[in-house]
Amino acid sequence: MIYSHQSGRGKPRPYVYMRILGIESSCDDSAAAYLEVAGGKVRRLDYVVATQEIHKKYGGVVPEVAAREHAATVPPLLAALADKVVGRPNGAMLGKRVDLIAVTRGPGLVTSLKVGLDTARALAVAWDKKIIGINHIEGHVYSNWLPAEIGQPLFGTKEKIFPALVLVVSGGHTELLYIKDHCSYKLLGATRDDAAGEAFDKTAKLMGLGYPGGPALSKLAELGDARVYDFPRPMIHDPHFDFSFAGLKTAVRYFLRDNQDKFGDEVFRRNVAAATERAIVDVLVAKTVRAAKEKKVRSIFLAGGVAANSTLRRFLSETIREKLPGTVFVEPLLRYCTDNAAMIAMAAHHRAKKGKFDDWRRMDADPNWELGR
Ligand code: KG4
Ligand code: ZN
């Protein structure tokens, strides 16, 4: 890692050059990435992900199985990443290119987290590198900094973006976070029961769409009419910023039970999917816009697996344009919405710039690590 000041005419500008290896294994995706940032621009980004298909047959993630899969997958994944970065599946050659190791330390499944974390700690010792433990949710936040093209200036280097608000919507989390500045968070609200992703997955399961059914439900919804059925929008008018989606799932369950005769009707299924999706999206958008107004933020980010949902993206951007003109709306590229290690490396880049390094001797997985509490 090089910190220097660019000389030349005018005021010297800080120049940071970092080459980061990112590792992520918090749930059921093993992922590794190589990120090179120089002078405020991404110079190189390579990433590999292995999704564990085995959980589909159980209808949910089985922690013990997930951890064993990570243990089997992480070494070959690092070899595959080395192949991309240095042209050979050679970890030692990759090590020579890396200055800093970034790894997810929580929240997540403790046994899954430990596979990635202990791999990262071992590499930090073997390669004698700096290391930073990253909060998985902070990683999702920084997926918004992953550029569409190599060489673009990093988001926020020219324009003022803070204070910002981020709506984190994933399989395990639904949160509104206030971001004062890089790496400085305050939790405004979170779900009291199911996360938005769980609401998608559980209703998808009720409709026989498999696991995780969020994307399938959303696809079915595209062809439906959301106005045909009116499902509950829990806590939408409450003054706080917490969420609750368990009641919605129960309402859909009873509705399907009472309409079993229509279950084979494709139009019925499309309309139920669309109405469920709209109920979830309406709550998310209403709370986000109200929090943004109250906290007077400059920008609003979307993050997490459910950020891939096209109805949420469309409704949120339209409502912001209409109700909060002038507020910047940022959404991650689709390829970085679900779990990946590029976002973990990007979060580490911003932590490293503030000198927030960890000591491999004192790092442990923190399955309940809450950001901004
Ligand atoms: O962030 P993520 O990859 O994993 C966690 O950290 O939990 O999020 C996965 C979640 C799953 O619940 C999945 O069904 C949901 O994101 N998801 C979607 C869509 N794509 C992924 N939900 C609704 N619409 C989508 N297009
Ligand atoms: Zn995630």
How far is it from the N-terminal to the C-terminal residue, by CA?
31 Å
Radius of gyration: 21 Å
The arrangement of helices and strands along the chain is EEEEHHEHEHEEEHHHHEHEH
Number of strands: 11
Number of helices: 10
- Mean pLDDT across the residues is 95
Helix content: 25-40%
Largest sheet: 6 strands, mixed
Class derived from helix and strand content: alpha/beta
| Shape descriptor | globular
* Binned strand content: 15-25%
Give start-end ranges of low-pLDDT stretches.
Answer: none
Q: Which molecules are bound in this entry?
A: 5'-O-[(R)-(carboxyoxy)(hydroxy)phosphoryl]adenosine, zinc ion
Structure write-up:
The model has no long low-confidence stretch (mean pLDDT 95). The two termini are 31 Å apart. The protein is an alpha/beta fold and 373 residues long. It has helices at residues 63-86, 91-97, 110-127, 136-142, 196-206, 214-222, 246-258, 266-295, 310-323, 342-353; strands spanning 2-6, 13-24, 29-38, 41-51, 100-106, 130-135, 164-169, 174-181, 184-190, 299-303, 328-330. The protein has 10 helices and 11 strands. Strands 1, 2, 3, 4, 5 and 6 form a 6-stranded mixed sheet that branches. Strands 9-8-7-10-11 form a 5-stranded mixed sheet, sandwiched between helices. Zinc ion is lined by residues 136, 140, 170, 304-305, 339.
List keywords for this structure.
373 residues, alpha/beta, 10 helices, 39% helix, binds 5'-O-[(R)-(carboxyoxy)(hydroxy)phosphoryl]adenosine, binds zinc ion
